Structure formats: C-alpha cells, structure tokens
C-alpha cells in the first residue's frame, strides 16, 4: 500500500498530553515533581527587567555633559520616586537654580558624563506561569519551568487568535452547519467557551468580547474581518500574543465552512465540561496549532488509545485540504498514484485521489493536504 508523509491535525477523544510550561528567563519553579495541579495553579515565576527611562539631564539643566555628575542628588544604584529631585544646577550665586525631577519610580542605573544622560530602570515586572491544564507535574526543569502530563481530549484547529484561556464549554448550535449568531450569545455565558458550527460573524465576535466570553470555537471565520479585530492586516500566520479578551479557534478554514463531523461530535460530547483554549498559531517552521484541551476523569482516560502518524498518509487516511479550491474540505484518501501528474499550473507534482464527505472524488496535490489524526 502506498504511503506519503504530510503534516497533520489531531482530533482525539483520549490521549496523553505533555505540556511544557516554561519561563521567558530563569526564575523559580514553585511546584515539585509528582504534584497534581489545576489550570490556575502557578507553577513557576520570575521577574522581567523593568522598562528603562532616559533622562537628558544636561539638556534640561542647560549644562555640559561633564558637569552632570556633580549636579546629581542621587547616585548610581539609588532608588528614586516619581517627582523626587534627580539633579539641580548650581545657579548664579546660589540663586536661579534649575532642577530635574524623576519621571518615574525606579533605580538609577547609570549617570553618563559623556552624554549627560541618566538611566532610570523601573521596577521589575513579575511574571507568573500557570499550569494551563489539569494534570501531574512529570518533570521539573530547575529555574526554567515544568512539564505537565494530562489525560485529555484534544482538538487542534487550523487557525486561531488570542492566547491561553479556560472555561466551561457551551454548545450553542444543534448542528455543525449552523452559524453562531449574535442573538445566541447572552450575558449568562460570561467566562465560558462557546462552540458554534460553520461560522461566526464579526458582529457576533464583538458581542462576545463585550460580554466577557472567554473563547469561541467555530468552523469558519471571514479572513478579511481579522483586520477589524487585530487592527492590522495579518500577513504571516503567527498569532497568540494579541491582547484580546476573547480567544477564537477556527477548526476548518476561512469563510462559511461546516465544522468537521468528528470535531463537532467530540465537542458536543463534552458540552458543559471544563476546557483550556489557546489560539496561538504558527504556520512556518516549528508549527504551532491552536487547540482545545479537555482534561478527562481518571476512569475515562483509561480507555486511551495510542496513535502513530509516523507511517504517514495512506489509503483511507482522513485528510483536510489546506489550499484552494477545496480549502477546508475533509475526505478520505482513495488512491496515492506513484507517478507525477501535471497540474493546471504546468507543474509536475505528486497527487492524491480524495473522496470528500459529499461523495465527490477529486485529484489534489499532496502538498495541499494534511492528515487529521482521530481515534
């Protein structure tokens, strides 16, 4: 039987997840190996260096840079409060003195007699990393972070915006082909993760933000409306750092795209359960997929199956098309012809014969496909 390697998405009812929780720089790990943690548990913390304020004392006092050190009221290493006197000129016969006050709280890091600048470092910025998911600390990386292991249902999306969030899943449509409309989103869903069908409009997303909805999971969204949310045109698909109140995960593609049946049924089966959501997406090297993680009870997790995609795509593999003209469609591989075939662009490529869910059979370049890993 023919096989081919292709990137893949996961839609799994039960699997083992090992989630690294790493600090941006060295700090302190606050949990021990073997400890059970909840999503809100703080597992490590550190302090980022505070912002730097440059004060041009020489210009403000109208003196030479070399004169600045003798006019300072504070020394390097001293702390200073906003509005406190930083430097003062000698004046004329002790009169008509000029002074410079500190623009911020902080510590004086440097006084330059060359430039006349004084560098004030603001207070360190505390950073705490939570567990994100429920699980057990399986590994401790001293001063760096931990690795948390959990038995969970896992659904990866094709695109997302916004960072990590969590909340109770709330299914608001009865069918995967239904749109999540603004009227479906109500104040009582504050803090929840809403699940729609084939589409969510910009109006509906904005209403979700205004009501404090934690996240939205949808089959499709209008790519052209992303600019209205982000404030800029998304070029390279690297997301997750946006300061958004409501994270969104798109499971299928752009436009009105019915959510895959397996994905919808899995989410439906966990309606009312607690989930962790992350919209971070990176399409280039080091692919990062947006995800929905639903931690399973211990008795449910025992039925977990192990999966191995190393064999690659083969006949009957479930795949999704990731480029036009069949973008977002799911189907099964019927055939993997070994010979190169000429496409409309005149290029010679390896292809796969795909039978889509509606029964249509199409020939698609293998590079336009990704596997969907399921139980």
Shape: elongated
* CATH C-level class of the largest domain: Alpha Beta
Q: How much beta, percentage-wise?
A: 35-45%
Note the gap between the termini: 21 Å
Number of domains: 3
Mean pLDDT: 89
Please bin the fraction of helical residues.
under 10%
- How many separate helices? 6
User: Taking Cα atoms only, what radius of gyration do you get, to the nearest Å?
Assistant: 28 Å
- For the record, the CATH architecture of the largest domain stands as 3-Layer(bba) Sandwich
CATH topology of the largest domain: Glucose Oxidase, domain 1
* Residue runs with pLDDT of under 50 for 5 or more positions: 1-6, 301-310
* SS content category: mainly beta
- Tell me the number of strands: 33
Largest sheet: 16 strands, mixed
Summary, kept brief:
With 375 residues, this protein is mainly beta.
């Amino acid at each position: 039987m023919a096989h081919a390697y292709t990137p893949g998405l996961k839609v799994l009812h039960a699997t083992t997840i090992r989630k690294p929780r790493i600090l941006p720089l060295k700090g302190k790990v606050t949990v021990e190996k073997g400890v059970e943690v909840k999503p809100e548990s703080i597992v490590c913390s550190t302090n980022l260096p505070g912002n730097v304020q440059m004060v041009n004392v020489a210009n403000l006092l109208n003196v030479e840079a070399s004169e600045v050190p003798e006019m300072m009221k504070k020394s390097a290493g001293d702390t200073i409060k906003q509005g406190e006197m930083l430097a003062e000129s000698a004046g004329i016969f002790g009169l008509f003195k000029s002074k410079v006050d500190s623009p911020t709280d902080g510590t004086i890091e440097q006084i330059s007699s060359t430039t006349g600048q004084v560098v004030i470092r603001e207070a360190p910025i505390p950073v705490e990393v939570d567990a994100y998911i429920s699980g057990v600390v399986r590994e401790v990386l001293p001063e760096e972070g931990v690795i948390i292991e959990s038995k969970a249902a896992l659904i990866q999306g094709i695109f997302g915006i916004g960072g990590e969030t969590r909340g109770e899943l709330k299914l608001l449509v009865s069918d995967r082909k239904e749109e999540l409309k603004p009227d479906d989103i109500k104040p009582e869903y504050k803090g929840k993760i809403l699940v729609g069908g084939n589409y969510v409009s910009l109006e509906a997303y904005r209403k979700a933000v205004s009501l404090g909805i934690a996240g939205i999971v949808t089959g499709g969204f209008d790519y052209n409306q992303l600019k209205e949310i982000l404030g800029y045109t998304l070029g390279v698909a690297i997301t997750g750092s946006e300061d958004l109140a409501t994270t969104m995960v798109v499971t299928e593609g752009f436009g009105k795209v019915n959510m895959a049946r397996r994905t919808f049924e899995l989410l439906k089966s966990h309606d009312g359960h607690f989930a962790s959501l992350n919209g971070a997406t990176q399409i280039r090297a080091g692919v990062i997929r947006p995800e929905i993680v639903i931690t399973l009870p211990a008795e449910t997790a025992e039925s977990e199956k192990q999966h191995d995609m190393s064999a690659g795509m083969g006949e009957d593999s479930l795949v999704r098309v990731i480029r036009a003209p069949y973008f977002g469609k799911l189907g099964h591989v019927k055939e993997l012809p070994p010979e190169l075939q000429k496409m409309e662009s005149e290029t010679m490529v390896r292809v796969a014969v795909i039978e889509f869910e509606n029964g249509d059979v199409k020939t698609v370049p293998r590079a336009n496909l990704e596997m969907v890993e399921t139980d």
